């Protein structure tokens, strides 16, 4: 399969990791829960993990690549206070200021 469309995701957080197995058919995510999140990749999409915190979704159908990347991101969307979670590489999260203690 020759991939034409790519979507890169970045995982931010201590202990958050991703692992792709069986020729890009399964994606395992450790996101601070008591269990690993296991995602099955659709047939038109392949998943690669360059580092434990960088995920690449590639495929020949742009809509399916975008849809799978969005489903991965929805497992742990980035939070606005600490910036932890799964975000797109080109995404910028504006952090909010927490309450100031007196």
From TrEMBL:
<dbReference type="GO" id="GO:0019843">
    <property type="term" value="F:rRNA binding"/>
</dbReference>
<comment type="similarity">
    <text>Belongs to the universal ribosomal protein uL6 family.</text>
</comment>
<dbReference type="InterPro" id="IPR000702">
    <property type="entry name" value="Ribosomal_uL6-like"/>
</dbReference>
<dbReference type="InterPro" id="IPR020040">
    <property type="entry name" value="Ribosomal_uL6_a/b-dom"/>
</dbReference>
<dbReference type="InterPro" id="IPR019906">
    <property type="entry name" value="Ribosomal_uL6_bac-type"/>
</dbReference>
<dbReference type="InterPro" id="IPR036789">
    <property type="entry name" value="Ribosomal_uL6-like_a/b-dom_sf"/>
</dbReference>
<dbReference type="GO" id="GO:0006412">
    <property type="term" value="P:translation"/>
</dbReference>
<dbReference type="GO" id="GO:0005840">
    <property type="term" value="C:ribosome"/>
</dbReference>
<protein>
    <recommendedName>
        <fullName>Large ribosomal subunit protein uL6 alpha-beta domain-containing protein</fullName>
    </recommendedName>
</protein>
<keyword id="KW-0689">Ribosomal protein</keyword>
<dbReference type="GO" id="GO:0003735">
    <property type="term" value="F:structural constituent of ribosome"/>
</dbReference>
<dbReference type="Pfam" id="PF00347">
    <property type="entry name" value="Ribosomal_L6"/>
</dbReference>
<keyword id="KW-0687">Ribonucleoprotein</keyword>
<dbReference type="GO" id="GO:1990904">
    <property type="term" value="C:ribonucleoprotein complex"/>
</dbReference>
<feature type="domain" description="Large ribosomal subunit protein uL6 alpha-beta">
    <location>
        <begin position="12"/>
        <end position="88"/>
    </location>
</feature>
């Amino acid at each position: 399969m020759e991939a034409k469309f790519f979507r890169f995701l970045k995982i931010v957080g201590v202990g958050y990791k991703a692992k792709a197995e069986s020729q890009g058919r399964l994606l395992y995510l450790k996101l601070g829960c008591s269990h690993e999140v296991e995602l099955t990749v659709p047939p038109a999409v392949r998943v690669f993990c360059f580092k434990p915190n960088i995920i690449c979704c590639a495929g020949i159908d742009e809509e399916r690549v975008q849809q799978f990347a969005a489903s991965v991101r929805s497992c742990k969307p980035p939070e606005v206070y600490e910036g932890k979670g799964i975000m797109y590489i080109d995404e910028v999260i504006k952090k909010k200021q927490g309450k100031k203690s007196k």
